[in-house]
Amino acid sequence: MRHVLATALAVAALGSASALAADMPQRPAYKAPMLAPTPVATWTGCYIGGNVGGAFGRASASAPGGEVSQDGSGFAGGGQIGCDYEFGGGFVIGIRDQLDYTSNKRSGTIASGTLAGTVVNFNNQWFDTLTGRIGYAVQPQWLLYFQGGAAWAHTSTDFSGAGIAGQTSNSRTGWTIGGGVEWMFAPHWSAFLEGNYMDFGSTSGNVTATGVPVPVTVKATESNVLVGVNYRFF
Asked: Which pLDDT does position 7 carry in this prediction?
């Protein structure tokens, strides 16, 4: 009889424990957090940005029997706008327009000839380049590129001396070639370092020497080293 009673009590205790466990809140199943896929960097898209750097130029002026040639340097700063397209596993082609103002000035004296003793002041106020570029993304965020195209500049050349007065001032057309490296350091943002060479050819005009017009020819080239930042629209 005691065994029967003990068995009945054990069964009742087990039933109560099962009912209590059923009434307790269930622990939620663990689920690993969903991670967003890492975006793949792309150079396809358009951009706008700014740049600063240095401008280094060489200018010369010649008159019958004499010539002066001078190197100069100054500040350069401005902005750029362009578009790129990436294809073929890392190749990038693009087009860009860049406008910079400069403080590149230099001066010299013609030593001989019709304008002997004339002081010549060269000044380049700005340059604008419209270039196509081609590059290769050596890593998704790093782009090496080369570029070339048309260049424009506004230059002035002043001639001054005893009985001498004149100036040539105009916008000039030439060509440019260069290259650089660009780094996409954050979504939509990139920074670049580049160097360019520009040749604006020669232009002719006249200055007055004691009332007599004297023909002069002015030639100018320009180089620059620029760092800049672009905001990219993808």
From this structure: 47
